[in-house]
């Protein structure tokens, strides 16, 4: 069986970030990356 490297905290963190990052669909990858960076800095 394969073991996931993700921990419960990873899922919790992505849940928080996803809600902030995808409030409006990003137009491109650079905007997406910037939104993720900003959202992480605010947590």
Helical percentage:
55-70%
Strand element count:
0
Largest sheet: none
Rg from Cα? 12 Å
So how many helices? 2
How far apart, in Å, are the first and last alpha carbons?
Answer: 34 Å
Whole-number total of structural domains? 1
Mean pLDDT: 85
User: Which stretches of 5+ consecutive residues score pLDDT under 50?
Assistant: none
Q: What's the SSE pattern?
A: HH
Question: What overall geometry do the principal axes of the alpha carbons give?
Answer: elongated
What is the subunit organization of this protein? single chain
Structural class: mainly alpha
Q: Which percent band covers the strand fraction? A: under 5%
Describe what you observe in this structure.
It is a single chain. This protein is mostly helical. The chain is built from two helices and no strands. The chain is elongated.
SSE layout and pairings?
Blueprint: H1 8-21, H2 29-42
What are the main properties of this structure?
43 residues; 65% helix; mainly alpha
Summarize the structure.
This protein is mainly α. It contains two helices and no strands. The chain has helices at 8-21, 29-42.
